[in-house]
Design a protein that fits this description.
Elements lengths: L3 E12 L2 E12 L3 E5 L6 H8 L7 E6 L2 E2 L4 H6 L1 E4 L11 H11 L5 H11 L15 H13 L5 E5 L7 H16 L3 E6 L2 H4 L4 E6 L2 E6 L1 H7 L3 E6 L7 H6 L5 E5 L2 E6 L2 H8 L8 E5 L3 H9 L8
Parallel strand pairs: 3-8, 3-9, 6-7, 7-8
Antiparallel strand pairs: 1-2, 1-4, 4-5, 9-10, 11-13, 11-14, 12-13
Length: 306
């Protein structure tokens, strides 16, 4: 379809005997912010590199920006911005000098004006002559993103771009991503942060190389089959051992002075928590969080009853 920026079917990657990516299908539409989540070593980065032409799939097929991911890998790279977690900035160069260097690498036309606009758009006006090595982690990542945007790519592939960045810098970074989406730029981003997953228009979760779920956050939660209650109180931690022993409870997770309790059968879950619904705790039913769902996908309980 014309509005599909990425469309890959059953792509696989083997490194020797290790099957790193297993039959992954993925479609990403123009202007989407597509969150790609999964544990370390799950195959996220390998999948990104196959999509952008840096790795050749062992099998499977697909297109990125209308180009074949196997035959047209060089052409794909001209039209994407790929930002790794450890994007290589030159710390002994200023912000402007870094942009100038990458502009020359990308052969950016009208480079001087393009750099001037980026410095303004990315709020670097007061930092343009500051050494990149003296920037905070958040500003370094913002500069790395600016370098990726120099050649005006149609697609951004961001591999854990905010890892190790403070919460405010992460929020500012995501505000930029949403602004770019409004301009029609598509983003495929890997992340470990659940609050960042909530900022995406669509999500996919991968574990051990296999895509476990895909869709909007509300669709993924609705299709999980999970039910959840939250308990709050000063001594709520005392409930953890007995609740985890109950076969009708598949997850118990602590969040401060609150406890998330999940099960696959609504009536059995209610019966399981009933003995602990004393005046010492406040209980109420809630919608499972996206974190509850992802943990269940990775570690499904073999003991639950339907």
């Amino acid at each position: 379809m014309a509005d599909e920026v990425i469309n890959v079917q059953k792509i696989n990657k083997f490194f020797g005997e290790k099957h790193t990516v297993c039959d992954v299908d993925m479609k990403v539409k123009k202007g989407e912010i597509f969150g790609f989540l999964g544990p370390n070593g799950s195959g996220k980065t390998t999948t990104l590199r196959m999509i952008c032409g840096l790795l050749t799939p062992s099998s499977g097929s697909g297109h990125c920006l209308g180009y074949d991911i196997i035959k047209d890998s060089l052409e794909i790279r001209k039209h994407i911005g790929y930002m790794t977690q450890r994007f290589s900035l030159y710390e002994d160069l200023t912000v402007r000098e870094n942009l100038d260097f990458f502009g020359r690498v990308y052969h950016v036309p009208d480079m001087k004006n393009r750099i001037t606009r980026l410095i303004e758009d990315m709020d670097f006006s007061n930092r343009a002559n500051q050494l990149a090595g003296n920037l905070s982690g958040g500003w370094k990542q913002r500069l790395a993103l600016a370098c990726c945007l120099l050649h005006e790519p149609k697609l951004l592939l961001l591999d854990e771009p905010t890892a190790g960045v403070d919460p405010k810098a992460r929020r500012d970074f995501w505000d930029i991503i949403h602004t770019l989406a409004q301009q029609g730029i598509t983003t495929l981003v890997t992340t470990h942060y659940m609050d960042e997953a909530e900022r995406c228009t669509r999500l996919a979760y991968i574990a051990q190389g296999k895509l476990l779920t895909e869709g909007s956050m509300s669709d993924i939660i609705a299709s999980s089959g999970l039910y959840a209650w939250v308990a709050s109180g000063d001594h709520v931690r005392e409930l953890i051992p007995p609740l985890r022993e109950n076969p009708d409870i598949i997850q118990v997770a602590i969040f401060g002075n609150k406890l998330h309790v999940c099960g696959m059968n609504q009536e059995k879950l209610q019966r399981a928590i009933q003995p602990y619904q004393s005046s010492a705790y406040e209980w109420r039913p809630i919608e499972p969080s996206i974190e509850d769902v992802f943990i269940h996908l990775v570690n499904p309980s073999p003991r639950h009853s339907s």
